[in-house]
Amino acid sequence: MLDGRVAVVTGSGRGLGRSYARALAAAGASVVVNDIDADVAEETVASIVGAGGAAVAEVGAVGGAEVADALVERAVGEFGRLDVMVTNAGALRDRTLRNTTDEDFDLVVGSHLRGTFTCGRAAAARFREQGEGGRLILVGSPAGQRASFGQTAYSASKGAIVAMMRTWAVEHAKIGVTVNAIVPTALTRMVATIPGLGELVEKVDRGEPVPADVRRRGLGTPDDVAPMIVYLASAASAEVTGQAIAAGGDRIALWTHPEQVAEQFHEGGWTPEAVAEAFAGPLKGELREYLPARGDG
Ligand SMILES: NC(=O)c1ccc[n+]([C@@H]2O[C@H](COP(=O)([O-])OP(=O)(O)OC[C@H]3O[C@@H](n4cnc5c(N)ncnc54)[C@H](O)[C@@H]3O)[C@@H](O)[C@H]2O)c1
Known about the structure:
The protein is α/β, with parallel strands linked by helices.
């Protein structure tokens, strides 16, 4: 499906990124594996090469332009071109607002959001140069779509990534570059600290199967999400752009984009009292749910 294609996957030393890199390589793509941790990056490369695929490691912390440029340069230098950029890397510092320090915020936003921005920009510049389209696959989260208690910096980053995706989809429509964001859910170390999930992550790490009811709720292994990445990287998805797409376990789903759902008019303009009346009356039943909903995963 991806013979002759070249992909970069950031943060692909472990977890979902490793599954994406391995699946892209298994589908025929040559892959630049990136991680902040050199050992795990090399492990991913070894597993791809061991399975007969092509991969190299480019170690570095995504965030700044230098690492983004180095990733694109490595793809071009090693494999001659770039077709797919998957911006998967990022760090977590789960804290409620009052406990979030400036350092926490900068680390999370710097890796997830800034890393997506710089890697997306570097890849898009290369796509323009090549003139043959391309694929930007960004990574959101349920935490960016709805409330996520204790994830101030993370939900800010992930919500912004999906917003950026929509803007990039518009900006690149004419040059055949599709831009989508997946909203994955998988049993990795990232979710191991969420109450109730630690045991399941341990099971998966031991190679035990994920129970069918959990898979049905959208939670499985990283390998369950990877086929979505391969599809979005392929020619088959040429018409799909500007989408936020959930994938996990046995489930895929499309997210809506924000829409206005209820409007009211007050001729000549609004007063605070008139707004209060609208909220006590016609808008009362229209207030939106913002809590994480079961099955959003
Ligand atoms: N696991 C889930 O259910 C879930 C849900 C929603 C979103 N996501 C998103 O999917 C992506 C992967 O998550 P995961 O669960 O596999 O996490 P993970 O922690 O298992 O893997 C992330 C990898 O990124 C690397 N990394 C961290 N900061 C980096 C940086 N600045 N530059 C390069 N590499 C860096 C880490 O070393 C690690 O190998 C993340 O963007 C995460 O937010 C995961």
